[in-house]
Structures are given as structure tokens and as C-alpha cells.
Amino acid sequence: MFRKIVLMAFLTAVALAGPARAQSPKIVIGIPGIPPIFVSTIAYVAQEQGFFKKYGADVELRQFDNGTAASRAVLAGDIDASYSGTAVVIGQIANAGVPLVGIYGMPRQDMSLVSTDPKRVTCEAVSGQPVSVDTQGGVRSIALKGLLAVGCHMDIDKVQQVAMGSNTASALASGQLVFGIAHLDDIPDIEQVGHKQVYVIKSQMETTPDNHNLLLVVRKDRLAEKRDGFVRAVAALTMAGRFMMDPKNNARVTAIIAPVTGRDAAITGPALSKYVQFGLWATSDDGMNKAQIEKYTATLVKGGSIQEGKTPPAYDQLIDPSVWRDAEALIKKTP
Q1: Considering 207, 227, 251, which residue would you say is the last residue of a domain?
Q2: Based on the domain organization, do 93 and 230 belong to the same domain?
Q3: Which of 103, 183, 303, 334 could form a disulfide with 20 if both were Cys (CB 3.0 to 4.6 A apart)?
Q4: 327 shares a domain with 219
Q5: Is the dihedral of CA 216, 297, 138, 254 positive or negative?
Q6: Is the confidence at residue 2, as pLDDT, over 60?
Q7: CA–CA dist 20, 14 (Å, integer)
Q8: DSSP summary character for residue 129
Q9: Is the same domain home to 102 and 243?
Q10: Which of 246, 179, 214 is nearest to 87 (CA)?
């Protein structure tokens, strides 16, 4: 009789635990930047705020020098998913035929071509100069190419790209370099740490406001194998984004991400507020708007990012919106 009562109690506990507590395959997510870039701190908020646990996701976060390296690790099977630049992923699929697919997106780009020299704040001043990027062919490198082409009517071979990973802010703050591709949060970092005024030469918000930023990408066979784990992870990331976008959580989010990014809270808190106003994280949808991504793909083709003779991926080849839909359903039915 006692054993029967214990068994019934156990089964009741399992039932009450619900779908968010079910066993889930482990998901390893590659995070761009050492230290991580600001947009990817959403994953650390999901971890520290308990959202992965709440939705039954077993997630490990692993840092990479940049999103390009992370997506290559996904292709190699070393990790399950990565936050990688949309332009990089589109190029990899078109040029190399890789089986990647996006399941969650960050739709807004925030990078600018900047200078710390008040006497060199024009397009002409950048010509022939070293410019800090992540890596050649990486997200900041592609941003530089677009900013030069659209904003300065200049080819990228007119400047010298210097691969700095996610360390553009430290390179400009220290005086190692004068020009760089900076995120919104890099600018207060350079100004406060380096005691230098930052001058925006051209910004993506000005020149190419509809360009898409990042995709959480997976290999198609791995998605089929671990789909439940990806749904749970995306549910957690979505809720982390909503938590971050609520201004009343600024102090808590700052406490989580300041040590992750290696920045003082006095820099991180205001940067977070700017990103909340900017709408950096997708929270009300999957962040993978079809019209926006198709327009951006066409821009990449026109700009030469797709090799001659290669076909860019159609939206249905590049994007799987069903994962976020199932993640949103999980959120709604989880207390």
C-alpha cells in the first residue's frame, strides 16, 4: 500500500511538472565575441534569470571570437546553434551550399563607422586607413563594406581591415586605432574608458535601416534530431528578451550582463537603456520578417556578397518559423 501511494505521488508530481519540466536534449549555443557582443547577452539573461530552467531547456553557452567562427562550429557539428550575422549565413548558404537554417532573429543593425580624431570625421579621411572589424568577412566587416558603399561611395579595398574580434572599443579607447565599426554600446565605452569623443561618420540606422542583424542558426539535420530542445531554448530566449526590454528590470539585467561583457555597470546600464529604446531584441515575433530578409538578401546580391553564378537562398530555405511558433505556444501554456 505504501509503495502504491509513493508511486501515485511520483506520477502526480510528474504530471504537475508539465511540459516545461520534460526531459530535453542538450543544446550548445555559440555566442559571438570574447567578451560577448551586447546583443547576445540575451542568452546569459536567460541562463541567470532561470528561463532555460523554467522551459525545460538544457543549454550550454560557449563563446567564440565572432559569429562566423561560431557558425562554422555549427556546420562541423561541434555545437548545436549559434548567433551569427544574417549576411554571413546567407553568404555561407549561397556560396558553399551549407545546410543552415535560422530559427530566431535579431532584426535591427546598430553599427556605425566611427572615428576618435575630430580632424578625421569624413569618408575621405578613412581612405587608406586601418579600420577595426571583427574578422574579414565577418559581421563588422560586412557592415563596413555596406557603410562605405552606400554612405561613402567607396569600395572596401580602399581601407585596411584590422581583425579585432569584439575588441573594437578597447582598440579605439587605447589609441591603437582611430577608425572602427562600433556597436551602440561601444561608443560610451570608448568615451568613458579612453576619455575620447567618438564621431559617427556613417551609421547603419542612417544608410541601411532595413538591414537584418543576426540569426540563431542550426544545422537542418541537428534541428530534426533535437527539435524539442531548440523549441524550449527559443522560448527561454524570447522571455529573456521580454525581461530585458522592460525598463523596470534595468538594474537586474545590468547586474547580469556587466560582468559578462567585462564593462562597468556605469557603462552597461545606459547602453542597455539605449538598446531597449532601439528595439534590439525581438520579443513580439520571431524577428525574421520575410519582406525584410528578402530585401536584405537582394542588397547582398547587388553588393557582391554572393559569388557570381551562385543562387541566394529563398526565404523558405533560409528560415524555419515553426520553432518560434511552437516556443510561443509553450510560453503561453507554461505557468
Answers
A1: 207
A2: yes
A3: 334
A4: yes
A5: negative
A6: no
A7: 11
A8: -
A9: yes
A10: 214
Query: What mean pLDDT is predicted for residues 66-95?
Result: 96
Domain enclosing residue 49, as ranges: 2-108+211-333
Is there a contact between 43 and 57 (Cβ–Cβ < 8 Å)? no
Cβ distance 116 to 122 under 8 Å?
A: no
Predicted pLDDT of residue 10 = 39
Q: Which helix (H) or strand (E) holds 222?
A: helix 220-225
Same domain, 189 and 142: yes
What is the per-residue pLDDT for 91? 94
Point out the domain boundary residue: 173, 207, 241: 207
CATH number of the domain to which 189 belongs: 3.40.190.10
**Cα(25)–Cα(21) distance, integer angstroms:** 12
What are the pLDDT digits (tens) for 46-64? 999 999 999 999 999 999 9
pTM attached to this predicted model: 0.86
Point out the least confidently predicted range of 6-15, 198-207, 218-227. 6-15
Q: The C-alpha cell of 238 is what?
A: 524570447
Q: Which of 191, 214, 132 is nearest to 165 (CA)?
A: 132
Domain count, the chain: 2
Residue 114's DSSP bridge partners are: 180, 200
Specify whether the CB–CB gap between 287 and 109 falls below 8 A.
Answer: no
d(CA 215, CA 101): 9
The pLDDT value recorded for residue 305 is: 86
* Backbone Cα Rg of the chain: 21
DSSP 171: H
What's the pLDDT tens digit per position in 255-292? 999 999 999 999 999 999 999 999 999 999 999 999 99
In the structure grid, which three cell numbers stand for residue 285, read together? 515575433
Residue 170: closest CA among 182, 157, 159, 160: 182
With residues binned 3-state (H G I as helix, E B as strand, rest as coil), the percentages for the chain, rounded to 5, are 55, 15, 30
Of 25, 215, 184, nearest to 103 (Cα)? 215
Same domain flag for 237 and 324? yes
Residues 236 and 303 placed together within one structural domain of the fold: yes
Element (H, E) at 87: helix 86-96
